[in-house]
Every structure is written in structure tokens, then in C-alpha cells.
Records
---
Amino acid sequence: MEVTRAPHYLLVDDHSLIREGMMQAIRSLDPAARFSQANSLQAALGKLEETAGDPIDVVLLDLGLPDSRGIATLQAMRLAAPTQRIGIITGQADVQIALECIHHGASCFIPKLAEIDGFTSALQALVDGRLHFPSELLSPSDVDFPTPDEESPPRVIRLTPRQKDVLQWILKGCTNLAIASALGISAETVKLHVSAIFRAYGVHSRTQLVLLCSRSPQAASPQADDASGPHDDPPLKALA
């Protein structure tokens, strides 16, 4: 019988009380969770190397660390953790910061000053492996979000099995190169799948795709196109 591996979290914040509070809150939602901690970017990068035998699954990252601040912190972490889910915990409840975090691969954005219910909902999404971006920060008017026509029937999204695989890696914030490595296919093939996914969802960027899926659990789990098999990668000549 296969034994399910308990998730391993890396909590990165320079305040020990914040780390302890996050650990207790996550453990209340997932008693099996295991933790590593770091108080700086360099310490966090070291933890990723130290835990190679028991890999980190989720990074919860503060953007204001003693040795790195802002989006550069997320960029460095994404480079070192190409396939891990990264959640941002920050004191900056700002829409532009949230959008930049999505663009650079975060799958959750958690303001430290959020109301307790919102804070708990965000952590629950993190534990469940779902996306979370506060709706009050990311309104359609702020982010040019594609809004459906109320008189039109809901869009039925169908993806091939391989496109669904690629979608799940996109929603984790992974780059095309990381997805290619994870799936054992070329980066050019991933690029073709990403373009097809954008067309299926009617979006023009990863940011719009992530926002759409964060607001609709159904969008994050599209219907399968049964006409295609599990290995439906397009031929590279399609790039021509």
C-alpha cells in the first residue's frame, strides 16, 4: 500500500513569532504538516539544499527580508525552487505587488493584516493546493480581467490530458523550462500547449489565467478532451 508523504513547508520570515504563528495555523489545518524555517533569503536557499533528500513542497515567503526585499526575493526563490508552490505573506496589501507576484510565479498572496477569516481562508487554500488572491485586491477593473457576457452560456473548457498536466504546473507558478523538465517534453512543446490553453480560456497571459482559475474552482479543473490520449504532444513542425 502506498504511503502518502506528509507535506513539507518552508516558512521564510525574519520574525520568529510570525513563523511560529504560521506553523501553528497551518498545523491546525493539516496536523501532518512538517516544517523547516529560515529568517533570511540566504538561509532559505540553504534550507532548500539541506532538505534535498526530503524536498520542500511549499514555500511561504515574506517579501521583506534583511538580505532581500520585494519581487527580487520571489524571483530568487522561484529560481532556486522551480517546481515548488510559493505563497507570499506580506504587509503590503497592494494590487500591483499582488500582480507582480502572480507574474513571477506565486500561487497564493496573503496580506499579514488581513481579517482573520480571510487569513484562514488563504492558509486553507495553501494547504489544499489551491490558488488564492484576495478578491478585494484584484477586481476586474484593476487588472483588465476578462469578464463573461451574462447573456452567453458559461464557457465549456476542454483540454487534452497533456494540456491539463501543463495547466496544473502553470497554476503552481512554474516556468516553461521547469514544466518541460517535469513532464519530460521539450520547452517548445510546452509553449504550444500554453498557447492552446490560453485560447481555450480566452485569456492572453499567465496572470489572467491564474486570476480566472483562482476565482473559479471549475476553471482550474477543466473537462478532458477524450478524443486525445495521455501523450498528445503536438509535433514540433507545428511551430513553423
Note: The first strand starts at residue 8 and ends at 12.
---
Amino acid sequence: MENTSRHTEPKQGWLRPDLVIAPMPAQSAAEAIAQLGARLQAGGFVKPSWVQAAIEREKTFATGLPTPEVGVAIPHTDGEHVLQQAIAVGVLAEPVLFGEMGSPENTVPVRLVCALAVAQNEFLVKLLQQLAQMFQTPGVLSQIVSATSPAQIARIFEDHIELTEDITT
């Protein structure tokens, strides 16, 4: 595998088909986070502490977004749990409840979970902005949840996420 920072192809590094679980069976937000965290850990993107840190963070800083088409959650942790930046995506077979971002006393039935492994705060802000914009684009969330393969889901994200900075620094 070639790994050159001159050929900055962050789309390949951020979300790869092997980081997509669709359909993903889960009975709870914690179970969904654990499955995606296990996928990130298996790929060498996060430390073993990532899953528990993401679950704990979710209790205080909920990440559910009540988007019009499909509920979305974006669990993540502090950078200390991240080895390499990536996104893992799970399309839930049935919705699970996540706390609502900004109003954790409310819940959001979520079908799309985007687990972020981001080591640097400036990238986290840019990535969250781009994800929010992507999720507000009519039809995109429906495309993702009806996609027939992990590669198709990865391509949809690639079409919308453009982080051109060298993600290795």
C-alpha cells in the first residue's frame, strides 16, 4: 500500500468501504458506537479506549441530529484516543435513540451513525461543518440509507467531504 502525503487523497483515508457497516444491527446507541469503534480499532485508526470514551462523551455531549429525511448521529472522542483520522459509518437496520445535539434531554431516532476518529480539533470543526452541509442536502441521506454496498456509501461521502489538508500532520 502506498502512503504518500504528496498525493493527498483524504477521501480515501477518511472513509473506506471496510469502515462501512450496512445494514448494522444494534439495539442501542452504545451498541452502535461499539460496533463502529471496533471497526475503527481493527483498522488501526483508534486506541482501545475510543469506544468507552465515545460512549461516555455521548452521555454529556449528545450527537443526534434530527435531520428531515433520516436521523443522524456523529459520535466522536477527544484526539487522545485517535491514532489515524477516519470516519466509520453504520446504516442501522432499525433506528436507535441517541440524545439530541444541544438538547440531550430529547432523543432522535437515528438510522445513520458516523463515528469520527479525528485527532486535531481544526479538522473536527471542518469535518463537522461539511457533514452538516452534506446531511442538509436534499436526497443525500435517503441515498445513503438505500445504498446497496459499502463502496456506494463511501462514494456518496467522497462526493461531499473535501478535506484537502495533509491529514498526517
Note: Confidence is low (pLDDT under 50) at residues 1-12.
---
Amino acid sequence: MTTFIIRRLLLVPLLLFGVTIIIFMMLQLLSPVERSALYVRDFPKNEKAVDGIIRRYGLDKPFYEQYWRWLVGIKDPVSGERNGGILFGDLGYSRTASQPVNELIKNRFPNTLDLTIWTIAPMILVGIWLGVQSAIHHNGWFDQAARMFSIIGTSFPTFVFGLMLLMFFYANLGWFSPGRLTDDLMQVVNKPTFIKYTSLITFDALLNGRVDIFLDAISHMVMPIITLSYISWATFLRVTRSSMLETLRMEYVTTARAKGLPERDVIYKHAQPNAMIPVVTLAGFSVVGLLGGVTITETVFNYPGIGSAAARAAVNLDVVTVLGFAIFIGFILIVANLVTDVLYAVVDPRVRLS
């Protein structure tokens, strides 16, 4: 197992190198003036100033030299400060948010992470349970209803379902609201007296003893959680059902039944663990999708995560910000793939033996 993990860890630098090359090649599609946004906050006002910026930061240099400067940045000859350098966390300046991209990610990602944490359990566990029950009651009424549910779920546009929830729970019933927190509680969170232990509002609220803030934050996440879970349940149901049906036809399951084992033990101790192998991969990619910012859901519910920030940057043609998000999400994807590979090996020992 240790050797398997080491082999996967050795691949991480190569994958990161590949991601940076792809992103940098995208940057080359921009003009040198547009690429100067990586180093300066305001575009130069005249042509002479533009040429000075391009020469100072080597934006007219060969590809490999520009790539190296993009990775490590350069020191400003006047102030001595380092400008640029994604290895030092400098992803450029966001014109739409009027702050550095890394600061924008720092402010928005905790909200996305908070939403992800509270979405994972209902999204994965309920989806798996529906798939297992559908396979157990193959061709029964539950299976037929679950398959219909799956078809509707996979064909239902996310924004339409989200708008329906807004009309029902917010406009008609007034139970849940879009956004992150109510205004008065947001002011409390922004005060110095509210200690931000984790930067996750729900957890910090509990650590500060503010149950009211915790409940308010959860109520604002109910509709996004339902939206994300419902769309994912359909996928998890189909994958789990298919894998479970295939596993239940295996000879070792027939043997376990022939030995007189209780049907519950046959299903949950013998069949289900082996049927979870493809589900682990699906769960890994689903979590990556959540951490990368669920753009449509965050936009519909006015949720201040990195998905809605990326959408705003794209609408305003803020390419530097969009590519900065791409680098960050690429890093998340690589780490998540590593974790998924390890979990895959835990579930199926044949993977690490191969």
C-alpha cells in the first residue's frame, strides 16, 4: 500500500507541470498588454508606457523565458518587490473583484468548502442507498420508481430546478433565503469579536457559541444542497444499481447464499463492498466538482462561492481571473484524483497489487 501511494505521489509534480503548461499556453493567446494584468493593476494610459511594461516584465521574450517568469515572478527594479509567480501564490489581479486573484480565492473558497462539506453526505449516501435498494428490488415497484426518478434527474436542468425551489421555498413559503447569511448576522461575523477559527461560517459559529448564526447559515444552504443532491442522486443511483446488479450475479454471492447466510449479510457484507468500486470514482469526481465551485447553483442562489466569482469574471471577460481559477481548480483535481486512487486501492486490493 505504501509503495502504491508513493508511486501516485511521484506523479503529482508531472501533472502539475502539465497543468501549468496548458494554462500558460492559454495565456499566450492574450496580447502582451492584456498579460500585463498579471503584474500591474491598471493598464498603462499611453503607448510608451505600454512598451515600458512589456520590456520590464519580459512579455516579449521567448516562450520558455516567459514561462519561467510566470512561475517564479520577477522582482520590481524600483520597489524590489516580487511581481507575479504562481509558485508564490500570485495569480494576477482580478479587475472584476478589484483585488488579487489569490485573495479572491481565499475569501470565496471557504464558502464553497462549507457548502461542499454539508452536501457530501446527503448527495453520496442517499444516492448509494437508492441504487442498492433499486438493485435489491430489481424490476419491482421501487426499482421502477427509482429508474423514473433517475431519468428525470439526469434530464432536469440545474438552473430550472433551482429556480423552482426559489419560487416554492422562498417566494411562496418564505422558509429559506438565497445568499450566505442575513445582513445583521453577517455584520456580526465581520466584527473582530467573532473569531474565525476555520473561516467556515457554520463551524466558526459553533466554536463561537453562536447557534443562531449556525442555523441561519444552514438555512441559506438548504436549497443549494437540495439542488446539488437531487441532480447527483440520479447519477449515483444509476451507477450503484448497475454495479450492484452485476455483483449480485457473481458466483461468490450465490455461494454465500447456498451456505445459508442471512440475505442481509449477503447483500451488505459481501455484495455491496465490491459494488462500491465504480462508485468511489464517481464520488471523487463529484466532490471535485463541488470544490471547484458549482457555478450554476451558486449563481442561481446568489451564493458567494468561487463558482459565482468565476462566472462573473467570465461575463466581464476578466481572463486573468478565469485562468487563475483554472490553476486552482486544476490543483484540486490532481489532489482529489490522488485521494480517489488511494481509496480505490483500499476498496479493491487488486488495484494496489497490480
Note: The two ends are 11 Å apart (CA to CA).
---
Amino acid sequence: MVPAPLAPSSVTLEQALACVRVSPEDFDLGAEVATLRAGDPGVGAVVSFVGTVREWQEAARAGQPALMELEHYPGMTERSIAELVVQACRRFDVRGVRVIHRVGPLAVGEQIVLVAVTSAHRQQAFDCAAFLMDWLKTRAPFWKKEIAGDDARWVDARESDEAAARRWQDAEGRA
């Protein structure tokens, strides 16, 4: 089923939930973008971001295979991301949004997240994608653990991610 273009000022949480998937399953960027664009002649821009699991220094130095394991609260995580999608759609003039975040064990090089946005014009799509990624990195309820051999550590939020998210806040500190 091809999703209808979003009406930015009136996107509901239910519509936004249909734009979000949290799953251990991998995704196909081309297929996701094609579905997002399908049947919408008003699309003039498509912006996508795919994040991948990168190797971290400790594992590389130890010469050990590395994994990142992501945990979440099913239902709560999807709703939290959908609330971000609603905010993004109300803030930016976009026609479609797709957010996919993987969970479970992921090896270095595997895809971990997709944010894809369609709009009539490029700047709205770029800004919306950046907004969503900045808030996903800092506010979405995921817990990440890096595992290399017998060593494992939980990953803390980085100050640079928090600073990136702050640029989108209003005077009251809301997204």
C-alpha cells in the first residue's frame, strides 16, 4: 500500500506511527524510498540518511570482532519516534517521512537506522531529516551496548549529539 502524502499541519499520531518501524530486520533503502515517493507527483526532493554500525577504537585495538546490541521497549519506542515525526511534520513542509531503526545484535558495517523524507523542495527535506536524526540520537528510548569478545559496555550519549539537538529547541526547550 502506498502511503498518502502527509498534511504537515494535521498529522496525527496514528499516521506518524505508520511511518515508523523498529525491528531487527534489515531494510532496503531503494525500496523504502520508492514506496515513500510512489504516486506523489508533488515530490521534488528526497533526502535519506542511513546510519551504519561503525567499529570503535577499543575493539579495533584488541583485534576482536565487534557487535552493537540495541535494546528498546516495544510500543513505547515506536510511539516516542512517532511523536518526533508529528513534531517534524508540523515544523517542516514535507510530504512523506519514513523512520526505521533496527534493534538486537548488529555487526560492524550493518545498517542501523534510516530516515527518509520527501518534500516539494530540498531544504525542507534536508532540515526535517537533520531534525529527526538529531532527536533520534538523543531522545529515542534505545539502549546501546558495544560488545567485543568478553568485553561489553553501555554507550552513553555524546555531548556533540546533545548540542546538535539543542539547535532545534524553542524558547521553552521543546523540540
Note: The mean pLDDT is 86.
